[in-house]
Write a structure and sequence with these properties.
17 helices; two-stranded antiparallel sheet; D-Maltodextrin-Binding Protein, domain 2; four-stranded mixed β-sheet; single chain; elongated; 449 residues; alpha/beta
Length: 449
């Protein structure tokens, strides 16, 4: 009978939230927002450009900078070292985008550069001018040393170094890795867990406050035990979270691929094709086979595909689901206890800080962890249950010993059971308390009942 009551509570909590207009709106808008963050940079890079053939007058009194200025699609540089700068500033020609004045060089071959325009000069033009003048001055200063074949020497000396990192497996094989990819995965997964725990844990708290305010809980509590009600609420909202999470994944992927098919631009196509291939092979469990067929010729794209093939996708996804669910259950129990101790959401500010503070600390440790995954701070942050959901997910892509994962998950489960027991005691008393905001001293008394 108690199992039937629990299932009824879970179903009720699930259906109430799924049928809400806010759930439908957020379920639709969030994937659009995420897809926009992925697609818009490519669109902006492809479509955005300033006005073409804008004229910039350069008054070069240094007599050394002109050869280094190169016209672009956006800017054409016109040189007139005898131009009357003050006259132009008083009656600025409509045909000019800007005027640049370069002073004569001093004894150290340095110049001052000033730009004048009717509107604030944009960053692209400013960077171009700075780059051209800097190159001219560097070249002029080097020539003062009278070194023969200076250009060839500089060309020979200029060297780019790229470090390739390899991971040695237990079988002795080597796999190419890219630390940037692992850092990106660590950051995204850890931040998603933080966001989802905070969002859905707060949803549990607001649900408790709403039922307490409407006095609905008095009717419900006559049929079920307080612990069953709290657990059913937590599991019901958790099922909503999982449903919404999977819908977001499907809709985001669909929107990205749809934009690719409709627009068909090269830059979007390149990124989307890679994402589509990865998504398809992840679903079929053949990621390594497809990665093996990708170009691995030492080119940047080949290195990226090689590095992606070495990412332990399965273990990362399993770890993500475990830490998301256990982290949510732990914090949802505490959020529900806070909700039962107050009559309205405004009164939660005093009580919510000790609950949210470990989450915020975990977020800061996470930022440290994806740069230093094996440090002492990262290790202990991944063991302490209140921070481990975020911190451990920042470590998993870099490789974590199985015993550390098992210990971390075991501690998280044990802490969840303990906090559920304590939260249930607070919930049992607080859910029927009205008209008075509970203090921490009173809540501690409730734990002793």
């Amino acid at each position: 009978m108690s199992t039937n009551k629990l299932s009824l509570i879970i179903t009720r909590e699930f259906l109430i939230r799924v049928k809400k207009r806010s759930f439908i709106i957020m379920t639709i808008l969030t994937p659009i927002f995420i897809a926009a963050l992925i697609v818009l940079p490519s669109l902006i890079m492809t479509l955005s450009s300033g006005k073409k053939d804008q004229t910039i007058l350069v008054v070069d009194r240094s007599e050394i900078c002109q050869p280094f200025f190169k016209n672009s699609e956006e800017f054409n540089y016109k040189f007139d070292p005898t131009a009357n700068v003050e006259s132009i500033k008083k009656d600025f020609p409509a045909s000019l985008f800007a005027m640049v004045e370069i002073s004569a060089p001093d004894s150290m071959m340095n110049v001052s550069v000033s730009a004048h325009s009717p509107k604030q000069l944009n960053m692209d033009a400013k960077n171009q001018i700075e780059r051209f003048v800097q190159k001219a001055l560097e070249d002029s200063k080097l020539k003062r040393y009278n070194i023969e074949n200076l250009d060839q020497i500089l060309k020979d000396v200029r060297t780019e170094v790229s470090v390739k990192t390899f991971t040695i497996t237990e079988e002795g094989d080597e796999k190419l890795g890219m630390v940037e990819i692992y850092m990106g995965i660590s950051y995204l997964l850890s931040f998603f867990i933080y966001m989802f725990i905070f969002m859905f844990g707060s949803m549990v708290m607001r649900g408790v406050i709403e039922e307490k305010t409407n006095r609905i809980v008095e009717v419900i509590i006559s049929s079920v035990k307080p612990f069953q009600l709290m657990l059913g609420k937590i599991l019901g909202v958790g099922s909503v979270a999982l449903l919404q999470f999977f819908i977001w994944i499907l809709l985001t992927a669909g929107i990205i691929f749809g934009v690719q098919a409709i627009i068909g631009m090269d830059k979007i196509t390149q990124g989307s094709e890679m994402a589509q291939q990865l998504s398809a092979v992840q679903a079929s469990g053949e990621l390594n086979n497809v990665m093996a067929a990708m170009p691995k010729d030492g080119s940047p794209m080949g290195d990226i595909m090689n590095a992606l093939s070495a990412v332990p996708v399965t273990s990362i996804l399993i770890s993500f689901m475990l830490y998301f669910l256990l982290g949510y259950l732990l914090y949802a129990a505490m959020f529900s206890a806070v909700g039962s101790a107050v009559d309205n959401e405004a009164d939660t500010q005093q009580l919510i800080l000790p609950v949210t503070l470990p989450l915020i600390i975990g977020l800061f440790i996470m930022v440290h962890t994806f740069q230093h995954p094996d440090s002492s701070l990262s290790f202990w942050g991944s063991m302490i249950p209140f921070t481990s959901p975020m911190v451990m997910m920042a470590r998993v892509p870099f490789g974590v010993p199985l015993w550390e994962l098992a210990l971390s998950i075991g501690l998280l489960i044990g802490t969840f059971l303990l906090m559920t027991y304590l939260s249930a005691k607070i919930y049992r008393v607080g859910i029927l308390m009205y008209g008075k905001k509970a203090s921490w001293r009173e809540i501690i008394k409730w734990l002793r009942y």
